[in-house]
């Protein structure tokens, strides 16, 4: 299967990648729920039937028709993100206690409850309640899916399979746009209830399918369930439980976890200090910048934006559908090159492309004379499509990949939930603040920035280039365990040195023998150190694989978390 998708399993790797690929792709469809809900509300806010049903007396100043006020439309969109913040933070203790698979099933059930509330709602308070519960589920899903995929996937396919989560988000957005295009002309509540209710279909399929999937072997190691971990890994690698390759992989996972535990606790305080704090900064920074690229301005308010700024062009619902088709198709190149290009190159190229596109839209539309208005609108729509191409192939999937793999097993759930909650915090801020920036809804104020808002998003894209260059380490093709060594040996602020890094430590040897192949054996270590016996027993070594290089005692490296 991996060959059919364009990737070939290394000859030195035993077993089959097919089970892990199928499991990873199925779990990645959790992104459909996130994407579909986002795309649905984008179109529903522009539906006449929805505005008639939920208007509390406010009227659109341009059409004099019933409408939601600026504050109401902001709240309807942003409340899902608020629920997602809570869900993302709760995902850590739930997934560490119940396991990745069971926590994911519970999250889907909460999401389904929220959808039922939305479909049954007839006024804004009930709609808000439904979107909050749906947000709880989506927030937890957005944490657990990347963790589960990274912990079950082979290292040479890990980035691609986590990228598939973003691909299914885009497919959900596309499906929602298509459904909205079909139902927006309907009369009565069915125009918006049908798009809302269809969310339950895949939620039920995904929840039932998860019941037969294996638990993450790394989670089982974390809980001390070695036999269960071996069985799970056996199913994912299609190897006998006694196969030497499987035994070796499981032993390295166990040794790495023991090594991590020896360095300190896995508390929330610990993950914002030392080496773990450095990783948390990277994760939170990437997730925050993903939102500040402005993509959810298009996804949440694209239809209403094009209604206002692209007057005289295509139906705004059709423009939104075209943008989402571009979004889906453009995600595929990212899946194909994320392992060969690496995380850093893909992020930097994508950020440069997005910055140029958005600054061009803002500059051209601001400078164009009044008689060029129609041409300016057309160019804005085309360049928006180019911007979406760069986002979907780079900053759409890659932050999820990096965040899912840079944290150690002992604190992975807590760290990923913290990084993802930062994503949802800025998601909520953009969802709530955009109507005020754009001046939508008339009464209630607003800056009425129009296309000038792309100056803001373009500036953040430029800042993203600098952030990635200095702080994001290259993690492609490394095992999750080897990434620990990567973060110990690459200095903070010199992320470019991680390109071409080759791991040389075996955590199994460090735990069992007290040294790694790249450094001193035990008897030489005893002869060269003057530290106390207690300190000596806790020391390991680092160095390069060449015999001409000097050997470095591991005690000289900062292992503190």
Describe this structure in words.
Strands 1-2 form a two-stranded antiparallel ribbon. The chain has two domains: 18-471, MFS general substrate transporter like domains (Growth Hormone, Chain: A), CATH 1.20.1250; 504-561, no CATH class. The chain contains 24 helices and two strands. Helix content is 68%, strand content 1%. The protein has helices at residues 18-28, 30-44, 48-54, 70-98, 100-120, 124-152, 158-183, 190-197, 199-210, 217-222, 226-237, 244-262, 274-292, 295-309, 316-337, 343-367, 373-395, 398-405, 412-438, 453-471, 480-489, 507-513, 522-528, 533-537; strands spanning 541-542, 552-553.
Q: What brief labels describe this structure?
A:
mainly alpha, 1% strand, Growth Hormone, Chain: A, 2 domains, disordered C terminus, 68% helix, 561 residues
